[in-house]
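Q: A reviewer asked whether we had any structural model of the full assembly, not just the individual parts. We don't, so I'm hoping you can provide one. Inputs are below.
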Amino acid sequence: MDLSNKQITVIFKALCDENRVQIFRLLQGGERCACELLDEMQLSQPTLSHHMKILCDSGLVVGRKEGKWTHYSISADGAEAAIKCISELTAVTETEGKRCCGE
Amino acid sequence: MDLSNKQITVIFKALCDENRVQIFRLLQGGERCACELLDEMQLSQPTLSHHMKILCDSGLVVGRKEGKWTHYSISADGAEAAIKCISELTAVTETEGKRCCGE
DNA sequence: ACCTCATATTGAAAATTTTCTATATTATAT
DNA sequence: ATATAATATAGAAAATTTTCAATATGAGGT
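A: Here is a predicted structure for the entire assembly that you could use as a starting point for your response.
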């Protein structure tokens, strides 16, 4: 993959806010339009819109416009990419114990 | 697992900052003490210490104290837990298309 | 006991993020 | 064309996060 540090932060910013995590829980039940999400969240409409932008920017959520509505859903591809990213970042490539600081 | 929204944000906060992502890249080479990390990052010592606290709080990094030094490394268990968390959060449990907003 | 080294904590400034109100945009209906 | 409905954008206030300087803590060494 080879994402920049910056790109990685954009992905995981999706999960750094309690409201956005809650939105994931709502989207687990399938595609939802913004108005439905707004009903269930204690947020103003512009604030929800702001969070949806961050979620879409992360790639973990996709928006589908249809007439007046925008339908949001979890992206399986985005989720896979995020998991791959975290796997790669946490994979230790160390072959053997290099020691430091007087060990 | 069943983590609260808040607990989930604590995990992924680790990956929401470019400096912290860079610290992961350094730790991929194996355990490092704070002074080594400090050498390689453009940060003051207190700022590094602050980031290491956030990383340890996330569970993705563990600190091991040894004499004057603290040695940090990536936690395989923490990584696994984070991956499980993101998998669960992005798993769509929808059985069939429920429609809304005039579809 | 004192000094030094490694790291952590405190407290405040700077930067970023979250939130809201007001307004704009875009689509559909009348 | 006008009105209404759904969502997005702009701009500013509030909250949080990042950062650093100063200081504290704690572990060895002399």
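A: Points you may want to mention in the reply: The mean pLDDT of chain B is 94. Residues 33-35, 38, 45-46, 48-50, 52-53, 65, 67-70 of chain B lie near DNA strand C (CB under 10 Å from a C1').
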